[in-house]
Amino acid sequence: MDHPESDQPERDRGAKPGRRRATVVDVARLAGVSAGTVSNAINGKRRVDPETRARVEAAIDALAYRPNIAARGIRTGRANTIALVSSMAAGVAAGPSRLGFLMEIAGAAALAALERNVALVLVPPIPDPETALRAVPLDGALLVEPARNDPFLPFLAVRGIPTVSIGAAYGVVSAQVDLNYDKTVDLLMDHLIETGARDFPLLIGTSARRYYEVFEARYRARAAQIGMVPQVLRIDERLGEQAAAQVVARHLRTRPGLDGVLAPVDALATGAMMALREARKAVPAEVRVVTRYDGLRARSETPQLTAVDLHLETVARTAAIALLELIEGRSVAPILPGPMPQLVMRASSRRN
C-alpha cells in the first residue's frame, strides 16, 4: 500500500514569511486526484497515466511543492541512495580517461535512479570499503566487473545490500548484466585475423576477473585454430600504462615480428602504443592494435584505436532499473541480457 508524503506544515525556505509550506494533500486537491496518486506520480513506484501526471506536475509547480525527503526516509526506512562501486586499480581506471568507463556507466545509472527520486553515489576504487562506507546509508549497489577477491563483495553481502553486477561476478550477487565477453573477444580476434595479423599477444591484467578469463580462453582457442603460438602477457594494473609499455617492449625483443596487439583494457592498449612507437613499429602498417573499451584513450590515441561499442548507457540503465526493482521488493532475473557489442574500426587496425 502506498502512503502519501507526510509533510509537516513547516515553512518553506523559499516561501514568504508566514506562508505555509504546501503539502501533498494540497497538491492532490488542486490536481483533483488522491494523495496516493500524487505520491505514485512523484516516487515512480506505480504507473500514472500521462494526463493525470500532467495535472499533478502542474499543481506541484503552481504550489511550489517540495517533498519532505527526510520524512519519507524515516517512514520507509530507506536512504533513497544507491552506490556505484569498482575495484579496478586507479592505474588503469584513472589517468587520461578520467575514470571514463566508470563515469560513462555512472552518468546513465544516475539518470535512471533520479527518475525514481534515488541518488547515486560514485565510490572510486578503495582498498577498505568497510571503513570508508560504514556510516554511509545505502539501499543498493551496482558493482562494476568485480574481481575474485573483490573487497566490495563481502562488505555488501554482510550488510545485506541488494547488488547488481555489471559484468559477470564471482560470489553471490542479486543479479548481473551480461556484457557478452565471448562475443566481444570474437569481434576483436576476427578483425585482427581478417586484416592479416597472425602473430599477436593478448595483454591482460594480473587480477582475477571474469572477462580476463574469457578473453584468455577464447584467445587460446582461436590461436590454436590458426596455428598461432599463444602469447599471454600479464600486467599489474596498478602500474598502468607504463607497466604495459615495459612488458610489450620486452616482448618485442623476443618477438620482433609480431603484427598485432589484443588489449581488452584501453590503458594497456595505450601502453602498448608507447612501446611500439619507441621500437619504431608503424601502426597499422606493421602492427595492428585493438582494444575493448571505446573511450577517450581509444579516440585520442594516434592513430585512433579500433575498439568496441559496448553500449554502456543501455547496460547501465538496465542494471540500475533492475537494482531499483530489487529494492522495491520485486523479482529480477539473475542474468540480464546486455546489448550486442559492435566493432568500431579505426586507423590502428586498417588493412594495408
Automatic annotation (TrEMBL):
Q: Name one GO molecular function term.
A: DNA binding
Give the InterPro entries listed for this entry.
HTH_LacI (IPR000843), LacI/GalR-like_sensor (IPR046335), Lambda_DNA-bd_dom_sf (IPR010982), Peripla_BP_I (IPR028082)
The cross-references to SMART domains, in alphabetical order and at most eight, read:
HTH_LACI
Region (Disordered), start-end ranges: 1-21
Where is composition skewed (Basic and acidic residues) in this entry? Answer: 1-15
UniProt cross-references to Gene3D superfamilies, sorted A to Z: 3.40.50.2300, lambda repressor-like DNA-binding domains
Cross-referenced Pfam families, in alphabetical order?
LacI, Peripla_BP_3
Can you tell which superkingdom this protein's organism belongs to? Bacteria
| Domain spans labelled HTH lacI-type | 22-76
Entry keyword annotation includes Protein biosynthesis? no
Q: What keywords sit in the KW lines?
A: DNA-binding, Repressor, Transcription, Transcription regulation
Looking up PANTHER family in the UniProt record yields: HTH-TYPE TRANSCRIPTIONAL REPRESSOR CYTR, LACI-RELATED TRANSCRIPTIONAL REPRESSOR
What name does the UniProt record give this protein? Answer: LacI family DNA-binding transcriptional regulator
List the lineage, top down.
Answer: Bacteria, Pseudomonadati, Pseudomonadota, Alphaproteobacteria, Rhodobacterales
